[in-house]
Design brief:
elongated, 2 helices, mainly beta, Jelly Rolls, disordered N terminus, five-stranded mixed β-sheet, six-stranded antiparallel β-sheet
Length: 710
Amino acid sequence: MRSESPIGLLLLLSLSCASTIRAQTDVLTQHNDLSRTGWNNQETILTTSNVNANSFGFLYSRPVDDQLFAQPLIATGVNIPGKGTKNVLFACTANNSIYAYDADDGSITSPYWEKNYSPAGFRPALKTDMHPGLCGGYYSDFSSNIGLVGTPVIDKSSGTLYFVTKVVSTDTSLVDNHAWNAGVTNEEYTYTTSGFHQYIHAVDLATGAEKPNSPVEIIDTVPGSGIGNINGRIGFDPRRQFNRTGLALSHGIVYVCFSAHCDWNPSHGWIMGFDAGSLQLRISYITTPADGRGGMWMSGAAPALDAAGNVFVAVGNGQVGEDGFTDMPQDTANRGESVVRLTPNAPDNTATALNITSFFTPQNYLVYDDADLDFGTQALLVPGTSMLVTAVKGKLMYVLDQASLGGFHAGSDSVIQSFPVSSNAQFHSSFAYYGGTSGQWLYQFSENTLLQSYRVGASSLGNPVSGSVSGPTGASGAYMSVSSNGATDSSAILWIAHAVNGCNANQSICQGILRAVRADDVTTELWNSTINPLDNLGNFSKMNCPTIANGKVYVNTFSNQLMVYGLTSNSLCNSYPDVASSVNNPGATYSASSTSGGAPSNAFDGNQSTSWNASATGPGGGDTAEITVNLSARYDICKVVVDWGTNYAKSFTLQGSNDDTVFTDLYMVTGNNSATTSITLSNLSYQYIRMQGVTRSASATGYAINEMEV
């Protein structure tokens, strides 16, 4: 028996020696990189051929103590005390808990460590602690706890996980939760901050133990005449302010962005920068120093950063003339309802300030503010270009120039492009990006729209191509990531998580769906979690992108569990008949480019002792010999298995046709050294299947196939 092929051996080891680290792909930050593309271009296991209902699906789940809002992160090569070097999955809950599970081995059911980071005498903040006036004094965007919400960031070099927690004293006498009275003017202002605290933590990846100087309470005041100022200074409010976005790490600074629960006054958009080593607060910036609000949600995305350390954020509603504040769209300092580029005043962790170096405010920002149609989604920096893509809940996508975002111009917008989407879109969603061989693509899938892809040009996006997948309804869109092996289109998959149609996941618990779509053709869906009841995702976790790493897809839920999907031993395909067999399909016929001592039909007679043998030389022989089966009718094909005889193909192409004239490449095999080659396929319907040889294992004789099953 010949040794297994590299891929076959890899899959075999994953089953029999699961403790062996198979690959080394990290996901250390929200949406994979500082550009927030969501693209893992080092996925060597999952492809468009093996992600289908026959070979891909649910593997196992990992229980946690509450809902999961923070995107799962993966750190490889972590030295766990007493366990050795492991790839680790980090799951963070709204109960201020973190679980460190094995990222590879489904049989290791207990976490390597699990810790709750609420101090003694404190609990996570609750939705019933929030009383924003714009929501009538009641907060329903969360169903219970609001503790650890923003996606952490990992510094692999120092073995550190950074995150923010929000806690409340369990001494109820300290916490003002008096009944909301709509008849009281500015009732929302009356709730005190007593008993509320927020902390930034830096913990050890291997143990969860706090690093030196951790945690640090988040406290500061900055100069400002805006809403809530006291004697010309605006203080951070630990009750109203809210870390919804992911954390970011750049040039030795950990950035944390804040909004407020339903724009609960008095509040501002804050960005704080902490020294990654000491956790010293170095930077405090607010979006509206002479105004109000201006929070950053970005649908859970982290701020985008370029190589120079510039920070790009999308900012929500400002105060817009309310409570005596004057609307000042050209006042650079006040940047509600804007996209902003902020530049640190030093290129490293000695930076002490962020300065606005460019901004964009839409010409109809007043309409957006009045109707709550502000910037609610991420800012994505398109790789290899100067473009930034974002969107407002007012149904428009914007393409901006990173170097000069566009400023404010009454009556017009100075932008590269703007795209109207569905009349009901609101962009509580993410974007995603793939840089493939056939082109670069950007994807949007807001609520109440179809999935769309845009071809990326040098300085603009092409017209959208709509897929056949219909989007979620209500006010919560889809969240997307991409996996591929480099720029290989046949490996590129767009992964999508969203709520079922008809359920508004903004303020309801909804059933979720995970989908896999070809990244180079969004009209082709490969798989989704509703095909097989065993793949059921559970309750949808809003504003949360799937994480793909090392052959697995990790998806949060609101069912108090993290779901793990990957290649399975699903036997559904094996239960189908071999339609190439002369026993099962008497109407099938066979042909080959050459024959030497064994007819083509021998490869389809169900007898391993007979074989087709191609000629070693001459017309139709040698390396490029081929064999074809005519199935007599079109069949939906899920797998082709080739059992080789004395001379196998090191490289070959599996092809399909429906007219025996034009053949399409279905799968290319290279580096094969296995006696049996099994190829899983999906979404294919053909009458003719051909093995087209490319390179033989030995040149003295022609190919030999004992059996070829379809």
